From TrEMBL:
It comes from Pseudomonas pohangensis. It is a multi-pass membrane protein. One of its GO terms (molecular function) is phosphatidylglycerol-prolipoprotein diacylglyceryl transferase activity. HAMAP family: Lgt (MF_01147). GO terms for cellular component: plasma membrane. This is Phosphatidylglycerol--prolipoprotein diacylglyceryl transferase. The keyword Transmembrane helix applies.
Amino acid sequence: MLVYPQIDPVALAIGPLKIHWYGLMYLVGIGGAWLLLSRRLQAFDPQWSKEKLSDLVFWSAMGVILGGRLGYVLFYDLAAYLHEPLKMLRVWEGGMSFHGGFIGVMLACWWFGKRNGKTFFQLMDFIAPVVPIGLGAGRIGNFINAELWGRATDAPWAMVFPAWSDPQQLARHPSQLYQFAMEGLALFVILWLYTRKPRPTMAVSGMFALWYGVFRIIAEFFRVPDAQLGYLAFGWLTMGQLLSLPMVALGIFLIWFAYRRQAAQGVAG
């Protein structure tokens, strides 16, 4: 059994100003995404400047933050936030939804593409391979915050989280690290290797949706669901799984449609 390494969620405090590790993880994700996208910029569009790329990253980041927060409020704990609306501003306490952030990024890409001569899927295919950087960093932030831990287990790598986080002091799956490994590392490797060759439009977006959905569904079997929701059906279905199932179906459809359209265009040519 492992003991949680007592990590202060506050990375730096200067008087009343506190910089949290959770917020820094977002900066890591955004900065890492910009760096890797800048390396792929010429292949994407030689006419694009790094300033335009920075604008895309900025608006996508706004989509992540605003969509992620609103998604959590709507999908996971609407009653509590209606009771205390100002709680919505305390993002350093956690409470972000990937699925809400995903919708936010899609809206940002649609809006940005309309103003810069790119289709929605051209931009989604471009940014999808770097999204796992932010996902992985976010899961490390969850781990530092000692939140979203897993179900009780007697596995030798089980971990006991701090009493302020888990009053029961049970040995649990460190599910944040499982999600870091799957949604961060594994998904990044899959997408990065897949995009080493040109792929038909929509296929990269489809691969992202498919594999993120699969990894999230697997991770939810080890993770304790949000207390205010619990299990939604059959004694095991969680909100995370419910929101990820359509992503798997959408991913399969996009991959199938992308290659079918490519084949049809090849025949027509």
